[in-house]
Amino acid sequence: MRDTAAHDLTVVPIRGEDTGIPILTATNLLLDKGDTALLDIPRLQVQNHGPTLIMGPNGAGKSLLLRVLHGLIRPTRGQVSLAEPFDQAMVFQRPVLLRRSVAGNVDFVLKSAGIPRRHRKARVARALAQAGLTDLARQSARSLSGGEQQKLALVSALARKPDILFLDEPTSNLDPTATQSIEQLIAQANRTGTKVIMVTHDAGQAKRIGGEVIFMNKGRVIEQTPIQHFLQSPKSDAARHYLAGGLLI
Amino acid sequence: MQNFASIFSNAIGLIWSGDPALWAIILLSLQVSIAAVLIAAVIGLPLGAALAVSRFPGRQVVIVLVNALMGLPPVVVGLMVYLMLSNAGPLGVLQLLYTPTAMIIAQVVLVTPIVTALTRQVIETLDAEYHEHLRSIGLSRLATVPVLLWDGRFALMTAVLAGFGRAIAEVGAVIIVGGNINHVTRVMTTTIALETSKGNLSLAMALGTVLLIMAVAVNAVVGLLGLRARQVAYA
User: Fold this and answer.
1) pTM to 2 decimals?
2) Among A60, A206, B174, B185, which has the highest number of CB atoms less than 10 A from its own CB?
3) Can you tell me the ipTM of this complex?
């Protein structure tokens, strides 16, 4: 990042703190490693309307924040609280697939969610149809292409009908066609009431998916605004630099 | 002293003719070592996997210890098991000394660390890949053990076969606790040691040949399983 450190600390007031009940609230979040604070977020609220996109330069702490919110990483202090005991799922940058068949992977996720066997078969079939993988159901999951693997990971996560879906740059390794089908699945999940919280680097993708942006830099949340506002008139210097760089490259 | 060629042709003749004494020895060897490896697998696979996924103070020390136990000298294991099972020992009442059961016990002690240590390595690699996903879908660390064992099954077969290779080829422990009693506790390795010292080189060579063939076969199976594991992983 450029030498804008002084400006990065200007925190723009967070939007909508008084509208409705947030689905997820983080308070006094601190994650440090030695002397460096990897995350330092006094307060963050995520509402349940539209997707939430976490953006920011490399090393900003986006993936860490996502993992802390999902509960994979325990923060040094502070807490994340959910409005209700929501069911959550996560899709990783590199899809994690078990050494089983395509259908076996979906079935495993459903089984882990405690869904009885008699309901699983139909839901596995529906998930595979959604991803266009029905014909490959019995094939080894790890023999799929990168795009197919990520689609499988995504529909596996969605098969348990999570209330919140976390995605960590799910399309960063994919070609445009695969990216498009992943984005369609995400949009569909959003329409059917799953709260999408997603890390992305791609301003174009952010625009297509819509919702609000949480812009991070150096472990802090710099601004939280609707995507259109963010792309057209970012309030912080850091975000302006980030978007300028992001669009130039 | 017979020459090598005649010893070898006699040995082949013994194997080919289906000499009952020879085959009884081979069969006992297989029974003892297979039983020992199965028991070692039942203990070592879950133990190694649990060691791979657990985090506790002193874990690294335990790993170093288990790795070190892979190289246990068989005669020392034989001696320890002997002391345990001898009449004066704590398990003397069981009257197991000089029985195949005693030999199985000694080989279990030898093989379990091998299976445990190799399992720990295999599962730790797999866990590095899987653990965020498995945690994300709600499995506790220990609940991931069966999943990891199943998904690592091909690589783990090689761990078990490595244990079998160790057991079937080992002489020091079984000769001490088994006593090399004819028709009772005489296995391939102990027979080779005895017959060679008696000068009955044909029988020793016959058994040695069978042992070598088994070693090659085990390694071939390990190689094929490794190939299969890679296919499952990436193909």
Assistant:
1) 0.85
2) B174
3) 0.84
